[in-house]
Design a protein that fits this description.
It is a single chain. About 45% of the residues lie in helices and about 15% in strands. It contains eight helices and eight strands. The strands form two sheets. Strands 2-3-1-4-8 form a five-stranded parallel sheet. A three-stranded antiparallel sheet has the order 6-5-7, with no helix packed on it. A hairpin with a 5-residue loop joins strand 5 (about 125) and strand 6. It binds zinc ion. Zinc ion binds next to loops.
């Protein structure tokens, strides 16, 4: 049984790394944000609660987040373990998690703010079909035009310098206490998130003493 937490700022490739890790180790990838989105879309009781909270401009409270995580982990479909993404987001949630589950490691994808800025500000979105692009490594064939539908590529509303600076500051304020807590328990493996995704994945596995990732094995 392998139970991991994955942490990293936006643009650090957290979702990609969690998916690669989960693929051949048969871990269940738990994305807490997706669970919330699902509840909202399915109009569950919990979804209504989340919707009300967000409509009031507030953050979803720790109790609600913890109960969602608890419910998800109680499904016990994770025979070989899990990798959880998007939780814990603050110190209190981290304490709850440590009390409830014995985790095997916390993967921290380390990406300097300057690189986050470079990656995030290179993102583009097709205004017509919603396809994502990235001017660093996923450029459209014709500048400013979507390869799929020819629509105009635009910058996301919340991908401005100012909005990103705010998000980064909030991220560090919230995450540093969580990382400190996990570090004191010696759970954290710090991995440089700058190299390509396969290199990063192999580093994660090396640090966690896991078998090497075999490219294409599960494709
Ligand atoms: Zn398009």
């Amino acid at each position: 049984m392998r139970k991991y937490v994955i942490m990293g700022v936006q643009g650090s490739g957290k979702g990609t790394q969690a998916a690669l890790l989960a693929s051949d180790l048969e871990l269940v990838q738990i994305i807490v944000g997706d669970i919330f989105r699902w509840h909202v879309q399915q109009h569950t009781k919990l979804g209504a609660q989340v919707r009300r909270t967000m409509a009031a401009g507030q953050l979803v409270g720790d109790d609600l987040v913890e109960s969602v995580v608890r419910d998800r982990l109680q499904q016990h479909d994770w025979n070989y373990g899990f990798v959880i993404d998007g939780f814990p987001r603050n110190r209190r949630q981290a304490e709850f998690f440590l009390e409830s589950y014995d985790i095997d490691g916390v993967i921290h994808l380390d990406l300097p703010d300057s690189e986050v800025r470079r990656r995030v500000l290179a993102r583009r979105l097709c205004a017509n079909c919603g396809m994502d692009y990235n001017l660093i490594d996923d450029r459209p064939t014709h500048e400013g035009r979507c390869d799929v539908c020819g629509g105009e590529l635009v910058i996301r509303e919340d991908d401005t310098e100012e909005a990103l600076a705010t998000r980064l500051r909030e991220y560090h304020e919230k995450t540093n206490p969580v990382l400190d807590l996990f570090r004191r328990k010696e759970y954290v493996v710090n991995v440089d998130a700058r190299p390509d995704k396969i290199t990063v994945q192999q580093m994660i596995r090396h640090r966690l003493s896991l078998p090497e990732y075999m490219e294409g094995k599960n494709d």
